[in-house]
Design brief:
The chain contains 9 helices and 8 strands. By secondary structure, it is α/β, with parallel strands linked by helices.
Length: 218
């Protein structure tokens, strides 16, 4: 059995025994930089959710495969430029990085053009970091309302990339509070190094790369 399948099964078994884990947690296998031969064993084993952060790489890897297996769900997890939106939709089923209103407008225009609505997470700058993208906590309520009511976006939850410090759990707790306040059902947070804490605090989508595929060579 391929190592990636063994790793994924190990994570699933771990979640089954985790009293904090919700029943329906989606594991996104972050396949960026990995060639399709590394990914195919997981697809053949029935895994459906995969994540990429570069559109050109994703187009080359996934266009034909998604035509064959229409159950696959592709997640865009990187910084999304407005000029790339027309390529992201409809290849990607989920966008995890909506971080400004100009991008929201572009997504709205494109989804109307092709009659396909991706499921969207709003990225929150939970650590108030100058160097990071994301909607500020103060602007979050009005931003989500505008996206839903004015642009008809399918906002399903919030996403964060917390600061690399000792306060990770407090950031996750605040994200859960904000998500509940907005009556959003899904919450995208937690990667290979902190997914257990994320799950403890209500995450429903975890983004795992090295934990499944091993260390990246680039």
């Amino acid at each position: 059995m391929h190592n990636s399948i063994l790793n994924l099964n190990s994570i699933k078994n771990e979640l089954k025994n985790d009293t904090n884990a919700l029943e329906n947690i989606e594991i996104i296998a972050i396949s960026k930089t990995f060639p399709i031969q590394n990914i195919s064993p997981l697809i053949e084993a029935g895994h459906l959710h995969f994540g990429e952060n570069k559109i050109q790489e994703a187009i080359g890897k996934w266009t034909d495969i998604k035509k064959i297996n229409q159950n696959l769900k592709l997640h865009f997890v990187g910084k999304l430029q407005t000029n790339k939106v027309k390529f992201v939709i409809p290849l990607f089923d989920y966008i995890h990085s909506l971080d400004n209103f100009k991008l929201a407008e572009k997504i709205s225009i494109q989804q109307n053009k092709i009659n396909f609505k991706p499921k969207i997470f709003v990225q929150v700058n939970i650590g108030k970091e100058i160097q990071k993208n994301g909607i500020s906590i103060d602007d979050l309520d009005s931003f989500v309302e505008q996206c839903q009511k004015d642009l008809d976006l399918d906002i399903i939850g919030l996403m964060c990339l917390p600061p690399n410090d000792d306060n990770t759990e407090s950031y996750f707790k605040e994200m859960k509070f904000l998500n509940n306040k907005l009556n959003l059902k899904e919450l995208s947070m937690g990667m290979s190094n902190d997914y257990k804490l994320a799950i403890k605090n209500g995450s429903t989508f975890i983004r795992l790369g090295s934990k499944i595929f091993g260390a990246r060579s680039i």
